[in-house]
Amino acid sequence: MILVSGATGNVGHNVVTQLLEAGEKVRAIARNPERLSFPPEVEVLRADLTEPESLPAALAGVERAFLFPVPGATEGFLAQGKDLRQVVLLSSISVDDEEENSIGLMHLAHERALAASGLKWTFVRPGGFMTNDLAWVPGVKAGVVRAPFGAAAQASVDERDIAAVVAQALLDEAHAGQIYRLSGPESLTVAQRVRIIGDVLGQEVRFEEQDPAEARRQMVTYMPEPIVDTLLSTFEGLVGTTAPVLPDVERVTGRPPFTYASWVAHHAADFR
Ligand SMILES: NC(=O)c1ccc[n+]([C@@H]2O[C@H](COP(=O)([O-])OP(=O)(O)OC[C@H]3O[C@@H](n4cnc5c(N)ncnc54)[C@H](OP(=O)(O)O)[C@@H]3O)[C@@H](O)[C@H]2O)c1
Question: Hey, how many other C-beta atoms are within 10 angstroms of the C-beta on 41?
Protein backbone atom coordinates (compact mmCIF):
# COMPACT_ATOMS: atom_id res chain seq x y z
CA MET A 1 0.00 0.00 0.00
CA ILE A 2 1.28 3.48 -0.91
CA LEU A 3 0.12 6.51 1.06
CA VAL A 4 -0.34 9.76 -0.88
CA SER A 5 -0.67 12.89 1.23
CA GLY A 6 -1.73 16.22 -0.27
CA ALA A 7 -3.84 13.97 -2.45
CA THR A 8 -6.28 16.63 -3.61
CA GLY A 9 -3.42 19.00 -4.54
CA ASN A 10 -1.91 19.76 -7.94
CA VAL A 11 0.86 17.21 -7.51
CA GLY A 12 -0.81 14.72 -5.15
CA HIS A 13 -3.88 13.95 -7.26
CA ASN A 14 -1.66 13.19 -10.24
CA VAL A 15 0.50 10.93 -8.05
CA VAL A 16 -2.65 9.00 -7.08
CA THR A 17 -3.72 8.62 -10.72
CA GLN A 18 -0.30 7.53 -11.94
CA LEU A 19 0.22 4.98 -9.15
CA LEU A 20 -3.20 3.51 -9.91
CA GLU A 21 -2.27 3.24 -13.58
CA ALA A 22 0.85 1.36 -12.46
CA GLY A 23 -1.38 -1.13 -10.64
CA GLU A 24 -0.51 -0.06 -7.08
CA LYS A 25 -2.83 -0.01 -4.08
CA VAL A 26 -3.21 3.62 -3.02
CA ARG A 27 -4.49 5.35 0.10
CA ALA A 28 -5.17 9.06 -0.45
CA ILE A 29 -5.30 11.50 2.44
CA ALA A 30 -6.20 15.17 2.79
CA ARG A 31 -8.21 17.24 5.27
CA ASN A 32 -11.01 17.67 2.72
CA PRO A 33 -10.73 14.62 0.47
CA GLU A 34 -14.27 15.18 -0.86
CA ARG A 35 -12.81 18.07 -2.91
CA LEU A 36 -11.87 15.50 -5.56
CA SER A 37 -13.58 12.29 -6.54
CA PHE A 38 -11.08 9.45 -6.89
CA PRO A 39 -11.71 6.17 -8.73
CA PRO A 40 -13.42 3.66 -6.40
CA GLU A 41 -10.28 1.50 -6.00
CA VAL A 42 -8.51 4.36 -4.17
CA GLU A 43 -8.85 4.15 -0.41
CA VAL A 44 -9.73 7.70 0.66
CA LEU A 45 -9.18 8.83 4.23
CA ARG A 46 -9.61 12.18 5.92
CA ALA A 47 -6.40 12.95 7.84
CA ASP A 48 -4.62 16.06 8.98
CA LEU A 49 -0.81 15.86 9.01
CA THR A 50 -0.76 18.34 11.90
CA GLU A 51 -3.06 16.11 14.00
CA PRO A 52 -1.04 13.10 15.25
CA GLU A 53 -4.19 11.23 16.27
CA SER A 54 -5.32 11.07 12.64
CA LEU A 55 -2.10 9.37 11.49
CA PRO A 56 -2.23 5.77 12.81
CA ALA A 57 -5.21 4.98 10.55
CA ALA A 58 -3.50 6.73 7.62
CA LEU A 59 -0.27 4.75 8.10
CA ALA A 60 -1.70 1.32 8.89
CA GLY A 61 -0.35 -1.25 6.43
CA VAL A 62 1.53 1.36 4.40
CA GLU A 63 4.99 0.56 2.96
CA ARG A 64 5.83 3.70 1.05
CA ALA A 65 4.60 7.29 1.22
CA PHE A 66 4.50 10.52 -0.74
CA LEU A 67 4.90 13.24 1.86
CA PHE A 68 3.44 16.69 1.22
CA PRO A 69 5.43 19.32 3.19
CA VAL A 70 2.98 20.78 5.69
CA PRO A 71 4.85 23.25 7.94
CA GLY A 72 5.56 21.75 11.36
CA ALA A 73 4.09 18.35 10.51
CA THR A 74 6.96 16.30 9.08
CA GLU A 75 8.65 15.22 12.34
CA GLY A 76 5.34 14.02 13.78
CA PHE A 77 4.55 12.07 10.62
CA LEU A 78 7.98 10.43 10.54
CA ALA A 79 7.82 9.56 14.24
CA GLN A 80 4.71 7.52 13.51
CA GLY A 81 5.99 6.22 10.18
CA LYS A 82 9.03 4.35 11.50
CA ASP A 83 8.01 1.16 9.68
CA LEU A 84 7.86 2.80 6.25
CA ARG A 85 10.29 1.39 3.68
CA GLN A 86 10.59 4.68 1.80
CA VAL A 87 9.34 8.29 1.78
CA VAL A 88 9.32 10.57 -1.27
CA LEU A 89 9.18 14.22 -0.24
CA LEU A 90 7.83 17.12 -2.27
CA SER A 91 10.45 19.85 -1.85
CA SER A 92 11.51 22.86 -3.91
CA ILE A 93 14.37 24.01 -6.13
CA SER A 94 14.55 27.01 -3.76
CA VAL A 95 16.59 24.74 -1.45
CA ASP A 96 19.40 25.19 -3.99
CA ASP A 97 19.23 29.00 -4.01
CA GLU A 98 22.53 30.67 -3.19
CA GLU A 99 20.82 33.32 -1.07
CA GLU A 100 18.87 32.12 1.95
CA ASN A 101 15.14 32.68 1.56
CA SER A 102 11.97 31.72 3.43
CA ILE A 103 10.78 29.16 0.85
CA GLY A 104 14.13 27.36 0.63
CA LEU A 105 14.55 27.28 4.40
CA MET A 106 11.05 25.88 4.91
CA HIS A 107 11.68 23.02 2.47
CA LEU A 108 15.19 22.41 3.80
CA ALA A 109 13.71 21.82 7.27
CA HIS A 110 11.46 19.06 5.85
CA GLU A 111 14.38 17.48 3.95
CA ARG A 112 16.61 17.52 7.04
CA ALA A 113 13.90 15.93 9.19
CA LEU A 114 13.43 13.14 6.64
CA ALA A 115 17.18 12.58 6.19
CA ALA A 116 17.57 12.37 9.98
CA SER A 117 14.74 9.84 10.33
CA GLY A 118 16.82 6.89 9.13
CA LEU A 119 14.14 6.05 6.52
CA LYS A 120 14.96 5.69 2.83
CA TRP A 121 14.22 9.03 1.19
CA THR A 122 13.94 10.75 -2.18
CA PHE A 123 13.72 14.54 -2.46
CA VAL A 124 11.81 15.96 -5.42
CA ARG A 125 12.74 19.62 -5.93
CA PRO A 126 10.61 21.24 -8.63
CA GLY A 127 11.06 24.77 -9.90
CA GLY A 128 8.05 27.01 -10.54
CA PHE A 129 4.84 25.10 -11.27
CA MET A 130 2.92 25.83 -14.46
CA THR A 131 -0.20 25.68 -12.27
CA ASN A 132 0.84 29.03 -10.74
CA ASP A 133 -0.41 30.57 -13.99
CA LEU A 134 -3.97 29.48 -13.18
CA ALA A 135 -3.97 32.70 -11.14
CA TRP A 136 -4.34 34.37 -14.56
CA VAL A 137 -7.70 32.70 -15.28
CA PRO A 138 -9.76 35.86 -14.55
CA GLY A 139 -7.35 37.92 -16.69
CA VAL A 140 -7.44 35.42 -19.54
CA LYS A 141 -11.25 35.48 -19.45
CA ALA A 142 -11.17 39.30 -19.52
CA GLY A 143 -8.60 39.33 -22.37
CA VAL A 144 -5.78 41.02 -20.41
CA VAL A 145 -3.32 39.45 -17.95
CA ARG A 146 -1.60 41.95 -15.65
CA ALA A 147 1.55 40.71 -13.89
CA PRO A 148 4.84 42.19 -12.71
CA PHE A 149 8.23 41.45 -14.32
CA GLY A 150 6.91 40.40 -17.73
CA ALA A 151 10.47 39.74 -18.96
CA ALA A 152 11.23 37.30 -16.11
CA ALA A 153 12.02 33.85 -17.54
CA GLN A 154 11.21 30.49 -15.99
CA ALA A 155 11.29 26.91 -17.27
CA SER A 156 8.16 26.10 -15.27
CA VAL A 157 7.15 22.49 -14.82
CA ASP A 158 3.87 20.64 -15.43
CA GLU A 159 2.35 19.05 -12.31
CA ARG A 160 1.97 15.78 -14.26
CA ASP A 161 5.76 15.65 -14.65
CA ILE A 162 6.39 16.29 -10.95
CA ALA A 163 3.93 13.52 -10.14
CA ALA A 164 5.55 11.18 -12.67
CA VAL A 165 8.93 11.58 -10.98
CA VAL A 166 7.34 11.05 -7.56
CA ALA A 167 5.54 7.93 -8.81
CA GLN A 168 8.70 6.47 -10.37
CA ALA A 169 10.59 7.08 -7.12
CA LEU A 170 7.85 5.27 -5.18
CA LEU A 171 7.83 2.34 -7.59
CA ASP A 172 11.56 1.63 -7.51
CA GLU A 173 13.75 1.79 -4.42
CA ALA A 174 16.76 2.46 -6.66
CA HIS A 175 15.63 6.09 -6.41
CA ALA A 176 16.32 6.13 -2.66
CA GLY A 177 18.95 8.68 -1.65
CA GLN A 178 18.44 10.71 -4.85
CA ILE A 179 17.62 14.41 -5.21
CA TYR A 180 15.71 15.30 -8.37
CA ARG A 181 15.58 18.87 -9.64
CA LEU A 182 12.73 19.44 -12.06
CA SER A 183 11.95 21.97 -14.75
CA GLY A 184 9.87 22.11 -17.88
CA PRO A 185 11.44 21.85 -21.35
CA GLU A 186 11.71 25.56 -22.25
CA SER A 187 12.65 28.93 -20.81
CA LEU A 188 9.70 31.31 -21.27
CA THR A 189 9.05 34.82 -20.03
CA VAL A 190 5.78 35.81 -18.38
CA ALA A 191 4.76 37.71 -21.50
CA GLN A 192 5.60 34.72 -23.75
CA ARG A 193 3.48 32.41 -21.57
CA VAL A 194 0.52 34.77 -21.83
CA ARG A 195 0.92 34.77 -25.62
CA ILE A 196 0.96 30.94 -25.68
CA ILE A 197 -2.23 30.82 -23.61
CA GLY A 198 -4.00 33.04 -26.16
CA ASP A 199 -2.63 31.00 -29.09
CA VAL A 200 -3.66 27.63 -27.62
CA LEU A 201 -7.12 28.84 -26.62
CA GLY A 202 -7.53 30.65 -29.93
CA GLN A 203 -8.49 33.91 -28.29
CA GLU A 204 -7.07 37.40 -27.85
CA VAL A 205 -5.13 37.69 -24.57
CA ARG A 206 -2.96 40.75 -23.99
CA PHE A 207 -0.12 41.03 -21.44
CA GLU A 208 0.13 44.23 -19.39
CA GLU A 209 3.05 45.02 -17.06
CA GLN A 210 1.85 45.45 -13.47
CA ASP A 211 3.50 47.65 -10.85
CA PRO A 212 5.21 45.20 -8.42
CA ALA A 213 3.89 47.21 -5.45
CA GLU A 214 0.33 46.66 -6.67
CA ALA A 215 1.02 42.93 -7.21
CA ARG A 216 2.42 42.72 -3.67
CA ARG A 217 -0.72 44.31 -2.20
CA GLN A 218 -2.83 41.67 -3.97
CA MET A 219 -0.55 38.70 -3.14
CA VAL A 220 -0.38 39.37 0.61
CA THR A 221 -4.14 38.86 0.79
CA TYR A 222 -3.66 35.12 0.10
CA MET A 223 0.04 34.36 0.91
CA PRO A 224 2.31 35.02 3.91
CA GLU A 225 4.33 38.23 3.46
CA PRO A 226 7.83 36.61 3.63
CA ILE A 227 6.80 34.21 0.84
CA VAL A 228 5.43 37.07 -1.29
CA ASP A 229 8.65 39.06 -0.85
CA THR A 230 10.78 36.03 -1.70
CA LEU A 231 8.72 35.37 -4.83
CA LEU A 232 8.77 38.98 -6.04
CA SER A 233 12.51 39.36 -5.53
CA THR A 234 13.08 36.01 -7.27
CA PHE A 235 10.97 37.11 -10.27
CA GLU A 236 12.79 40.45 -10.42
CA GLY A 237 16.12 38.58 -10.52
CA LEU A 238 14.86 36.49 -13.46
CA VAL A 239 14.23 39.49 -15.72
CA GLY A 240 16.37 39.24 -18.82
CA THR A 241 17.76 35.80 -17.96
CA THR A 242 17.36 32.42 -19.63
CA ALA A 243 16.10 29.75 -17.24
CA PRO A 244 18.04 26.47 -17.08
CA VAL A 245 16.29 23.41 -18.50
CA LEU A 246 17.00 20.48 -16.18
CA PRO A 247 17.35 16.86 -17.30
CA ASP A 248 15.77 14.98 -14.38
CA VAL A 249 12.16 14.60 -15.62
CA GLU A 250 13.44 12.84 -18.74
CA ARG A 251 16.14 10.91 -16.86
CA VAL A 252 13.62 9.49 -14.40
CA THR A 253 10.55 9.03 -16.62
CA GLY A 254 12.27 8.24 -19.93
CA ARG A 255 10.28 10.89 -21.81
CA PRO A 256 10.63 14.66 -22.19
CA PRO A 257 8.63 16.95 -19.90
CA PHE A 258 5.34 18.47 -21.11
CA THR A 259 5.57 21.81 -22.91
CA TYR A 260 3.77 24.91 -21.71
CA ALA A 261 1.40 24.72 -24.69
CA SER A 262 0.51 21.15 -23.75
CA TRP A 263 -0.16 22.27 -20.16
CA VAL A 264 -2.47 25.06 -21.38
CA ALA A 265 -4.36 22.59 -23.59
CA HIS A 266 -4.72 20.26 -20.59
CA HIS A 267 -6.21 23.15 -18.59
CA ALA A 268 -8.23 24.72 -21.41
CA ALA A 269 -11.49 24.19 -19.51
CA ASP A 270 -10.08 26.06 -16.49
CA PHE A 271 -9.10 29.04 -18.64
CA ARG A 272 -12.45 29.13 -20.40
N1 LIG B 1 4.00 26.52 -6.77
C2 LIG B 1 5.28 26.42 -7.08
O3 LIG B 1 5.78 27.03 -8.03
C4 LIG B 1 6.15 25.50 -6.26
C5 LIG B 1 7.47 25.25 -6.66
C6 LIG B 1 8.26 24.38 -5.90
C7 LIG B 1 7.72 23.78 -4.76
N8 LIG B 1 6.42 24.07 -4.41
C9 LIG B 1 5.89 23.47 -3.20
O10 LIG B 1 4.87 22.56 -3.56
C11 LIG B 1 3.86 22.57 -2.57
C12 LIG B 1 2.52 22.85 -3.24
O13 LIG B 1 2.16 21.69 -3.97
P14 LIG B 1 0.71 21.58 -4.66
O15 LIG B 1 0.57 22.72 -5.62
O16 LIG B 1 0.49 20.20 -5.14
O17 LIG B 1 -0.21 21.88 -3.42
P18 LIG B 1 -1.75 22.22 -3.39
O19 LIG B 1 -2.38 22.05 -4.73
O20 LIG B 1 -1.89 23.54 -2.67
O21 LIG B 1 -2.29 21.07 -2.45
C22 LIG B 1 -2.03 21.00 -1.08
C23 LIG B 1 -2.50 19.64 -0.62
O24 LIG B 1 -2.10 19.39 0.71
C25 LIG B 1 -3.25 19.05 1.49
N26 LIG B 1 -3.00 19.53 2.85
C27 LIG B 1 -2.73 20.80 3.22
N28 LIG B 1 -2.57 20.87 4.55
C29 LIG B 1 -2.74 19.61 5.02
C30 LIG B 1 -2.70 19.01 6.31
N31 LIG B 1 -2.46 19.75 7.42
N32 LIG B 1 -2.90 17.68 6.44
C33 LIG B 1 -3.15 16.92 5.34
N34 LIG B 1 -3.20 17.43 4.09
C35 LIG B 1 -3.00 18.75 3.94
C36 LIG B 1 -4.39 19.77 0.77
O37 LIG B 1 -5.65 19.21 0.97
P38 LIG B 1 -6.62 19.70 2.17
O39 LIG B 1 -6.63 21.21 2.10
O40 LIG B 1 -7.93 19.06 1.89
O41 LIG B 1 -5.98 19.15 3.39
C42 LIG B 1 -3.99 19.48 -0.69
O43 LIG B 1 -4.31 18.17 -1.04
C44 LIG B 1 4.26 23.64 -1.54
O45 LIG B 1 4.94 23.02 -0.46
C46 LIG B 1 5.20 24.50 -2.33
O47 LIG B 1 6.13 25.19 -1.50
C48 LIG B 1 5.63 24.88 -5.14
Answer: 8
Residue whose Cα lies nearest atom 15 of ligand 1: it is 10
Q: Is residue 132, in this structure, part of any structural domain at all?
A: no
pLDDT tens digits along 88-136? 999 999 999 988 888 999 999 999 999 999 999 999 999 999 999 999 9
Cβ of 169 below 6 Å from ligand 1: no
- The pTM score is 0.97
| Number of folded domains that form the chain | 1
For position 118, what pLDDT does the model report? 96
Q: Whose CA is nearest to atom 21 of ligand 1?
A: 9
CB burial readout 163-189, b (16+ within 10 A) else e: bbbbbbbbbeeebeebebbbbbbbbbb
Q: Ligand 1 atom closest to Cα of 69? A: 45
Range of the domain at 26: 2-127+159-183+245-257
